[in-house]
Amino acid sequence: MRLSSTKEKTTFIEPTLGGELFDVTVTAPKSLQLSGHNIGAILVDSGRLKLEDVERILRFQKEQGLRFGDAALKLKLVNQEDIQHALSKQFSYAYLRPGEGGFASDLVAAYKPFSLQVEALRALRSQLILRWFSEGRKTLAIISPNAQEGRSYLAANLAVIFSQLGERTLLIDANLRNPRQHSIFNLPLGVGLTSVLSGRTGQDAIVGIPSFADLSVLVAGPVPPNPLELLGRPEFSRLLADLGQRYDVILIDTPAGAAYSDAMTIASHAGGALMVTRKDRTRLDAVKALSAQLSASGTPVIGSVFNKY
């Protein structure tokens, strides 16, 4: 990721982009009494190793003076992905295998945490912490001029990335025109933000994501006939202020800024916006126009992300 900055803003440019603890104190020999946080125990718990495999690895480990994971790799009993998955559990770093959790494949922060793409997202997270959230701010809107430029993708993956850091993170889908976060996280759309803003439910509409202990999602809810009016109500500001007492980071997905005024209203409530643009799709004049509108309303665009895909 290449970064260019001024005193006012930073531009972010992406590069190319269970169960019970294992216990064998009765049936296994003494050498195999593993802690639940031991890599061997984690690999057995996940079904990647059998008990006889562990004993073989331990013998080879002692003979060669290797770490457990390196010994298992040399014996070809596991692969590098198995070791990375075990390490992620050992260090409480949420990381899923493809298909696990039922999330959309777009959630690369969950399924491909060691990819260059996710490294770029981590770099972006660091910049946001330094330049926005470290100043006591809690809320940020993710905006772009048009549809299919990567807003929902970026918002979802940033939410996962922040939660992996141990930040209490809330992702709000405020795109009441064409909501997407419920599809990404495999959640029902029946109750959500519109239900809260219309007074039909409370904050119990927020859903915790079990795979990521510090991540919660508030889906859009039923698509209303009056999205802009709902988002413009004082209830939305009060909701964000209240949620700021419960969460460290609140990211808000928005509809296309050039097509609807919703994004302007949401960004104003959030206090700041991160602009997403896409290669061969986003027009520079559309970015300038949306930035000018936000600036005129007193809402800073703190940076931009260039999506190459």
Number of helices: 13
The top-level CATH class of the largest domain is Alpha Beta
What's the CATH architecture name of the largest domain? 3-Layer(aba) Sandwich
Using the coordinates shown, work out and report the CATH topology of the largest domain: Rossmann fold
Helix content: 25-40%
The strand line-up of the biggest sheet is 1-2-9-8-3-7-4-6-5
Largest sheet: 9 strands, mixed
Order of helices and strands: EEHHHHHHEHEHHEEHHEHEHE
Which stretches of 5+ consecutive residues score pLDDT under 50?
1-36
Helix-and-strand structural type: alpha/beta
Radius of gyration: 22 Å
Tell me the distance between the termini. Answer: 14 Å
The CATH homologous superfamily of the largest domain is termed: P-loop containing nucleotide triphosphate hydrolases
Q: Proportion of β residues?
A: 5-15%
Assembly type of the chains comes to single chain
Integer count of domains? 2
- Strand runs, count: 9
Shape: elongated
Report the mean per-residue pLDDT as an integer.
Answer: 83
